[in-house]
Amino acid sequence: MAARAMWKGVIRFEDVEVPVKLYSAVQDQAVHFRLLHEKDMEPVKQQMVHPDTGKVVDADEVRRAYQTDDGDLVMLDDEELAELEPEASRDIEVTRFLDTDVITHQWYDRPYYLGPDGDAGAYFALAEALRKKGREGVVRWVMRKKEYVGALRAHGDHLILMTLRRKGEVVPASALKAPGGRALDKREVNMAMQLVSALEEDELDLAAFRDEYRDRVVELVTAKAEGKVVKFPEPPAKQTEESLEKMLAASLKAAKKRRASG
Amino acid sequence: MAEHEEDDVGPRSFWSGTITFGLVSIPVELFPGSRSQRVSLRMVAPDGTPLVRRYFCPKEEKALEWDEIVRGYEIEKDTYVVVTDDELMKLAPEKTRDIDLRQFVDVAQLDPMHFERAYYLTPGGNSTKAYRLLAATMEQTGRAGIATFVMRGKEYLIAILAENGILRAETMRFADEVRSVEDVELPAAEKPGATRVRAMEKAIAALSESALDESELEDRSAEKLLELVARKERSGKDVVAAPAGEAAPASEGIIDLMEVLKRSLQGTAGGTAKRAARRDAEGAGREKAASPSKTGRKSPKSNGNAAAKSDARAGGKSSPTAGGKSGRKSGGKAAPPTREGAKWSKSHLRAQSKDELYEQAKKLNIEGRSSMTKDELVDALSNA
Questions:
Q1: Residue B282, phi then psi, degrees to nearest 5
Q2: DSSP conformational letter for B248
Q3: Which DSSP string do the residues of B317-354 spell out, in sequence order?
Q4: Which residue out of B212, B214, B275, B369 would a mutagenesis test of the A interface target, given it has the greatest number of A Cβ atoms within 10 Å?
Q5: Residues of A in contact with B137 (CB under 8 A)
Q6: Is the CB of residue A245 less than 8 Å away from at least one CB of chain B?
Q7: How far is the alpha carbon of A260 from chain B, nearest alpha carbon, in Å?
Q8: Distance of alpha carbon B328 from alpha carbon B319, whole angstroms
Q9: A95 CB near a chain B CB, below 8 Å?
């Protein structure tokens, strides 16, 4: 089934125009629960209630307010809220291009795929140029009455948009100081490096990591539905603590053995 | 109010446990590496009174107390299986305690599409040696460790990276949570004309810079909102004074987070006594959060007493962590690790972005979530 585009826009910079379609790159796999009234197993509904009267306030009477640092509430009416909405636009405006390692992944929020919307030549030329140059664009666009900032990147032969966190939202590692202590023992560092390389894989296969917890939730629910007795896994025993060096040596031995037999 | 009391301590660790590296255990605490600064609005009555969200039974048309509500999974239309928090917590006891680093890869192998959120890891025990050893090793080799662990009722796939001597856990989307180019059915690549590519390269070069200007990442809509609010405040129109006795919402800016991270990384928080005190507060906070009588807040019945009723209990082992219910309020690991999943405290929730809260609300199927403000999402989730 072909995915449906969620939005259409035009990438613009200098005299370049690349019309694109935007697709969500993330798909939800979560287990969903509902809140139920225990007595009759009815899914509950939510309503806003006035705390003084206990009466339900209908949705069309509910107003929005901004709470200031002093706790005061500044009420905003619909017209004012409408004015705050960013101007609708189809433009994906590139403000600058950067080397792809300038914006670290700590800024990344959510990825979207871009597909060509008409001029496929321009689309693939942009993807190729970005890849060859090792650059990504800093972009801004308005989608569904919301303003986004993002990174326009090549992903293989295609283009993606990665939404970014906002100014001042990320704590960079450079702003922090590493924990201190006595200099590390060279032998221990050596052993730790060997252990890392013993556990190293050349290719990362993310599919090998499953959300087992999700699987277990589904198993639990199925078992309960069938009236089966549910068995919970045993918590692991706590390991005894030995010296760091001894533990590293033992780990290294175990890792090498596993590698030799596997 | 209890939640403000909690907030006074500032951002606290989301999770504490150990990283297992071979047979070496490294106690760590996990803190968010970013904080949403998005502005959110509250829902108020026409007279300006902040409204509260209540759950109603549609059949009986009456407001429900928390101890009348359970969590259900829909196995077929209109048929639900009740699942308690206690059962969910017992599903993966090993993963709520340990991050088991069994695989290392070159950092360059990590696909940007999978990165979700960054957390900092700080040394959790008295010694920083093993922590520093792992950080140094990973930084020197340019490797990331891949693992999964469970935090607050959800399993996370993470890449552990070291930068600047500090360990960071980046949550990654699971393989099946990211669609492929084939899933989306993007058209196969066409070889673009060389002239066109050159023209693009030239245009890119013309607009290239060496550094990011963070002002480009400003939230302009939020700025517009704040300007409007300031204007209205000056005019005094539509301004409702804070109810007497109600504290202002604790602001938890990025500065607070940075301070806490700095303290936690240095281990001492200005002296061991202070650190222990913080730990105490943390333990007490958790106990408080888990016990409705102390917060005055109703806590969902699924938190503990429901388990006694649940038929599944018969087959379950007794609580894996002795003392899980008795109040251990101090000591290194104040609360048993499984306690982590027990309650989503408001300060923990508030530290997340609205989008993240929304995702969680979606997972829990909280109704009306799309029209909720951040505060409302926090309220709804802390009770869910």
A1: -65, -45
A2: P
A3: PS-SSTTSSS----STT-S-GGGGGT---HHHHHTS-H
A4: B212
A5: 189, 192-193, 196
A6: no
A7: 16
A8: 15
A9: yes
Number of H helices, E strands in chain A: 5, 12
CB B134, CB B21: distance < 8 Å = yes
Closest-CA distance of chain B to residue A197, Å:
8
Q: Is A29 in contact with B366 (Cβ distance < 8 A)? A: no
Task: Please name the residue that has the structure tokens 């000591």.
Answer: B331
Nearest chain B alpha carbon to A35: B71
**Cβ–Cβ of B221/A84 closer than 8 Å?**
yes
User: What pTM does this model have?
Assistant: 0.78
**3 state SS of A33:** coil
> CA end-to-end span of chain B, whole Å?
19
What CA–CA distances, in Å, run from A159 to A17, B84, B347, B369? Answer: 14, 44, 38, 31
Per-residue pLDDT of B69-84, as tens digits, reads 999 999 888 899 999 8
- Asked if B273 reaches chain A (Cβ–Cβ under 8 Å), the answer is no
Check: CB of residue A83 under 8 Å from CB of residue A119: no
| ipTM of the prediction | 0.89
Percent of chain B scored above 90 by pLDDT?
39
Q: Say whether pLDDT at B299 is over 80.
A: no
**B327: how many CB neighbours lie within 10 A of its CB?**
16
Q: Tokens for A32?
A: 């969903």
Q: Taking Cα atoms as reference points, which of A101, A172, A93, A87 lies closest to residue A134?
A: A101
What b/e readout covers A142-159, taking b as 16+ CB neighbours within 10 angstroms? bbeeebbbbbbbbbebbb
Check if the beta carbon of residue B212 is closer than 8 Å to that of residue A98.
yes
Contact yes or no for B221 and A94 at CB 8 A: no
Single-letter amino acid code for the residue at B294: K
